[in-house]
Amino acid sequence: MGAVALRGQGLYEVESPTLLRFVTGLAQGADLIAADQALASGWSLQLALPAEPEAFLAEAASQMSAEASSRYLEHARSLLKSASAVMSFDEPTANAAVRDGHELVCETVVAQSDVLIVVWDGQPARGFGGTAHAVRLAVDRGLPVVWIDARDGSHVRLMLPGREPTEGTDPLWKWIESSLLLDAQPDYRQFKPLRDSRQRWDEFLMEDATRSARFPPAFHLILCLGGAPWPRWIRRAKDSASAWLENWEGYVEALRQQDPAMADGVRDSLMAPFLRADHLAERFGRAYRGAYVLVYLLAGGATLVGLLGLIWLDQKPWFVATELMMILLMAVVAWVGRRNRWHDRWLEYRALAEQLRISRVTAWTADSTEPSDPHGDSVHPGASWVSWYLRACVRQLPMPAIRVNDQHSRLALDTISRRDIAPQHAFNRKTEKIQGHVHERLETIENTLLALLVLACVAYLCGNLLAPDWVEQHASKAMTLVGALIPALGAMVLGIRSQGEFGAYSARSADTAAELLPLIARTRRLLASPTRVRFEDLRLVCRGLVEALSNDTYAWRIVYRRKHLSMST
Question: Among the listed ranges 91-95, 143-147, 178-182, 253-257, which one has the minimum average pLDDT value?
């Protein structure tokens, strides 16, 4: 069993050569033959072993004759020296309740691959970790499988996702091209979502990530109602980076203790794109959310100015002119925001930044979070290019060159707990509180305005009954102003509250914080335990974290996807 990992910048930028990696074990037979062919073709070789290399080789050689054992050990050790990364699982096999090293190798090879190549007799699995198990994992994940019949080497079948097995591998490269290249679909010019995806990717490439976010922080001022700190008027790129640099650099340094190459890969392939996407999301988020708050405020102001023209008739032309300017400004802000796609760019860049940050967790486990088919959501151009670019970034990471043991699992758990789980739990609790308070206080303002309107109406009616002449002379215009202005202000506050979805955001943050609580308890228990921390325990924590944060990102996008900017917002 072997696997091809088509990785590196070459698949995504034509200026760089494609990096091909072959991931396999060191079992006698097909593994060794395929590894030789990969190295001869100039591919990078990466090995996944169920035990520490020498222990695994000794165990494998013990089942051979003396002459075969000598040849095997010499061959396997030469491949070990040629490998760019070796990941070994120092996991006991006595406990049947957890995955042993062979099963972990099988899952790692599939998770690290774009195409699975197997030499298989087609027989059902006789346990976990064998070839049949690998084929099932690949099919479930949506990977193509090249099946070479172990009984007849000339008989090769191709299993593509969603299709019946076919003879030969002719369609394979076409599938690889259409899956891994953003605009390689044959109907690219006719299929609008794919064309839009490419345009949005080009737009992302051309973004100037050093520009400051200079749009008035109107939305952030609204958050101050919930206890958020006073915002900076201008948000520079270095301000966005400084909020995350210590967290990311600490993460990278912890990884460097285990695998310097992986640490460099995370820094270059995940951290750098994250900082860029995070600042762009901050910039366009400030523009979009500030714009809709500004539109509502202008609408309220235009109503007030228009009503004032009814009271001071001699100044009415000036009030009308001012009202017109406010309406035109609303139209300009909405038009510029829609033309420049502030809303879509905010959603896309924020989703990309969050998923890049989530993906760093897999550097400890060689697991996979990126989609096997980035075009699976191509009906939504924004989601399509984001998924595709996420895959491009993650696929540039090497397989971890580590020995998975208690020390590795404890370091990984401690790092993930301090730099992912605990900060995200604190962030979501804080967000729940701030957003909830904003929702409640805006609702209180609405109710207060309604109560004031009711009191004004009652007072006017009572006055009209008791002193109609005085009311007609002194209070009629005031009632007209109050009767029209208060509902307009109430509608303005309601619009801001509805567009901001503060209540929904607060509830979603509460749910995410609740999902993270069991992970906090589990990591504390594992780190405090005097017994060995198994790799399986580490992977369960990582997968739980990835699931919780991915669900949060998905739910956030669903809430805000249809909140487009317009004059009526």
Answer: 91-95
| Residue type for position 487 | P
Average pLDDT for 158-186:
70
Span 83-98, average pLDDT: 73
From the number of C-beta atoms within 10 Å of its C-beta (0-12, 13-18, 19+), residue 178 rates as middle
Question: Among 107, 152, 57, 35, which Cα is nearest to 543's?
Answer: 107
Q: Indicate whether 569 pLDDT > 70.
A: no
Q: Where would I find the H helices in 207-244?
A: 218-223, 237-242
* Tokens, residue 66: 């003396």
The token pair that represents 510 in the structure block: 């509460």
- Residues 545 and 248: their CA atoms lie apart, in Å, by 17
Q: Could you give the residue ranges of the DSSP H alpha helices within 340-380?
A: 342-359
Q: Give the span between the Cα atoms of 569 and 338, in whole angstroms.
A: 11
| Domains delineated in the chain | 2-180 (3.40.50), 218-363+402-560 (no CATH)
C-alpha pair distances (Å), 208 with each of 284, 337, 388, 500:
12, 17, 21, 27
Question: Counting runs of H as helices and runs of E as strands, what totals does the chain give?
Answer: 21, 9
Reading the block at residue 187, the tokens are 């109907």
What span, in angstroms and rounded, lies between the C-alpha atoms of 11 and 308? 63
Cβ–Cβ under 8 Å, residues 85 and 401: yes
Q: What phi and psi, each to the nearest 5 degrees, are found at residue 87?
A: -115, 120
DSSP 463-502: HHHH-HHHHHHHTHHHHHHHHHHHHHHHHHHHHHHHHHTH
Assign 404 to helix, strand or coil: strand
The C-alpha atoms of residue 203 and residue 182 are separated, in whole angstroms, by: 14
Q: CA quadruple 21, 27, 28, 30: dihedral positive or negative?
A: negative
CA 8 to chain centre: 20
Residue 376 has pLDDT above 60, yes or no: no
Which residue pairs from 346-349 have beta carbons closer than 8 angstroms and sit at least 24 positions apart in sequence? Answer: 346/281, 346/284, 346/285, 346/287, 346/288, 346/289, 347/382, 347/557, 347/560, 347/561, 348/200, 348/204, 348/382, 348/385, 348/386, 349/204, 349/277, 349/278, 349/280, 349/281, 349/284
* pTM metric for this prediction: 0.88
Which residues are within 8 A (CB) of 221 and not within 5 positions of it... i.e. 6 or more apart? Answer: 231, 293
Angstrom distances, CA of residue 304 to CA of 299, 311, 319, 354, 398: 9, 11, 9, 41, 62
CA dihedral (216, 217, 219, 224) in degrees, to 10, reads: -140
* pLDDT of 190: 46
Backbone angles phi, psi at 75, to 5 degrees: -65, -50
List, in sequence order, the alpha helices (H) in 130-191: 131-141, 170-180
